[in-house]
C-alpha cells in the first residue's frame, strides 16, 4: 500500500471512529485510533501515516510525534472535505 492509499484508509478509519463536528470535520483521539484492533491490522506505522496526512493538510493535531500513553488524549481532526465545484456553484446560486 502506498502513502496515498494509507492516507485514504486513515480518513475512512477516522470517520468510522470519530465524531462528526458541526463544520463537517471529524474528531478522534490518538488513543482511540492507536488502540483500535482494525487500525492496528491496517497500519503498520500509524504515527508515520498520521504525519504524512498532516503534511498533506488532510488532518491536524498538536505536536509532531505522537506516542502511545503520553499522547492518548491528543485530538486528531480530519478536515471537512471541500465541496465539489458544482455544489459550490449551486449553493451560491441558491443564495443569490
UniProtKB/TrEMBL annotation:
Residue ranges of domain Costars in the record: 1-79
Gene Ontology biological-process annotations: regulation of actin filament-based process
Pfam families recorded: Costars (PF14705)
Tree of life domain: Eukaryota
Protein family membership: Belongs to the costars family.
Protein name stated in the entry: Costars domain-containing protein
Organism, scientific name: Salix dunnii
